[in-house]
Structures are given as C-alpha cells and as structure tokens.
Amino acid sequence: MLDFLKPPIEAFQDFIGLAIKAIQNVFRSPHYADDILIQMDIIGVGSLPIVMMIGAFTGAVMSLQMARALTTYGAAGQIGQIVSITLVRELGPVLTAVLVAGRNASGMASELGSMKVTEQIDAMRALGTDPIQKLVTPRLIATSVVLPLLTIIADFIGLIGGFLIANLLLNITSSQFWTPAWQILEYNDLVQGLLKPFAFAIIIALVGCFYGMRTTGGTEGVGRSTTKAVVVASVWIFVVTLFIGRLFVNL
C-alpha cells in the first residue's frame, strides 16, 4: 500500500517545489523579458482565433437553447441576463482555460520534454543558468497575463453571439438584450470572472512545465508527458472552479 502511494506523493512534492521556485523567481532577476513576450505571443495571440470562435458559438448556443424555454413562460427578454451572467461567471473562464490547456499546456510539456530528453536542460544547469528561471517563470508570467485577457474577449464575443441569435429568432432589440445583460452583473461576478482565469493560468503553466521537465523515455516519454499535462490541467481547472465558485456564493 505504501509503495503504491510513493510515486504520487513524490510527484506532488516535486510539483509544489517547482511552483514555489517559479513564483519566487517572478520577484527575482533576471526576468528574461524577451522570453515572456514570445510566450505571450504564442499563448495569447496564437489562441485568440479559437477562443473567439468558441466564445461566439457558446453564446449563440445558450441563446438558442434558452429561447424555447423562456418564450414558453413569456420571459424571452431575460435571455441577455442569463447569457451574460453564465458567461462571465463560469463558461467564459472555464472554456477558455480548457482550450488554452489543450493548446498550450501540451505545447509546454512537449517543448520542455524534448529539451529534457535531449539533455538541453542539463546543459543549462552546467552553464550556470537556472532552468526554472529561464523556462518555467516566463511561461507562468505570460499565461497569467494573457488568459484573463482572452477570457474577457471570449465573454464579449459570446455576448455578441447570444445577441445575434436572440435578435434573429426572438426579435429582441439591442436595448432589450444589452441593458439587462450589463445591469445583472455585479462586482462579485466581475471579480469571480477575472480571478478564475488567473488561477487557471497558474495551473496550466505549472502543470505543463512540470510534466515537461519530468519527461523520461525519449520521444515516447514526450508523448506521455503531453497527454498527462492536458488531462491533469483540465481536471484541476474544473476542481478549482468549484472551490472558487463556492467561495463567492458565500460572499
């Protein structure tokens, strides 16, 4: 029984150690600003098209599904409120984070895993460069900056998609949709909608880099690390959104 528990406990300890060092390095020099900007471009700009597309279709699907039920009760004018609060609180942050995890956590794991199996990370240590400072911290900073911005864009595009469906199917005017959509949002909702992607960004970056730097077994090991990074990051995104949502429900 104890032998069975040793590997996950050791992995968790290693992950905590990596996370602490990466976060401490945020406040230490050097910061490798060029690497941070490159990662912001890869993660943020590279993910923008798919995030916008998923946001638009999410809002459209929500309006489409809500239209029938709300029309039955004569509450079609509430579509804007439902789409707005659902996107800002839950669907916007979670769907954006899952997409970024699938695209970028896998990329981080495969890139660092390839460096690990080709001994490039060992060469960095031999030259006196901290691999965590050079490889992990820039990805952590970049993801933490761009994921909340991507979430804001996804929320807004989702509202536009929801409005188009509501306008075409239910003849709801722009004022009937947008005014309740903005009025329903409270400070609590906005903070929740921005805190979640920030927490998700930390999870995505650290999990992707962690599995990348633990890669063993050549090219097959890189594939395994990539798969683990995506699965673990996605699971933790849903776990963390539950706890954050539970916290804000009590406020």
Structure explained in plain terms:
This protein has 251 residues and is mainly alpha-helical. It is 87% helix and 0% strand. It is built from eight helices and no strands. Helix 3 (79-117) runs antiparallel to helix 8. The longest helix has 40 residues, at 33-72. The mean pLDDT is 89.
What's this model, at a glance?
The chain is mainly α. It has eight helices and no strands.
What's the overall geometry? Answer: elongated
The protein's oligomeric status is single chain
Along the chain, the helix and strand elements come as HHHHHHHH
**Cα-atom Rg, whole angstroms?**
21 Å
List the helices and strands and how they pair.
Elements (H helix, E strand, L loop, with lengths): L1 H24 L7 H40 L6 H39 L2 H7 L4 H40 L3 H10 L3 H27 L4 H32 L2
Keywords summarizing the entry:
single chain, 251 residues, mainly alpha, 87% helix, elongated
